[in-house]
Amino acid sequence: MPICKQCKLEKDYSEFYKHPKTKDWILHFCKECKKEYARNNRSKEQDKKRYWSNPRKRLNVIYRWMMSRCYNVNCRNYSRYWKRGIKVLWNNYKEFYDDMISSYIIHWEQNWKTKNRQTQIDRINNNWHYCKENCKRVNAKENNQHNKF
Known about the structure:
The chain is of the alpha+beta class.
């Protein structure tokens, strides 16, 4: 049985994460120690800055989530989008970016100092596709008010 390098305890293989780049295919820290290390070394302020401080990066994340919901069969929300016939009408990220960046930045600048600064893209008509004419910028609270589910 492997020994955790952090707590120095011998534990069962099920107590370790799998890692393909090690000889024995397990991470050398047990799951508990790994979680504790991540919790103690993650700065919440750094996470917020990385995620919210640059609206251009945030827009890229939104695009990837949108594509995943509509086209990735393994996505948990796939049935709520593709199976209902909802598609992304932008051919690529550049088209999406060119259409959405100016209004997205304006909304972001108006809201980034408030607590509700999570600028998101919402469909005006929930049963229609993702496209410039059907998308608007909202914050998280507004976006959750008219969920279908």
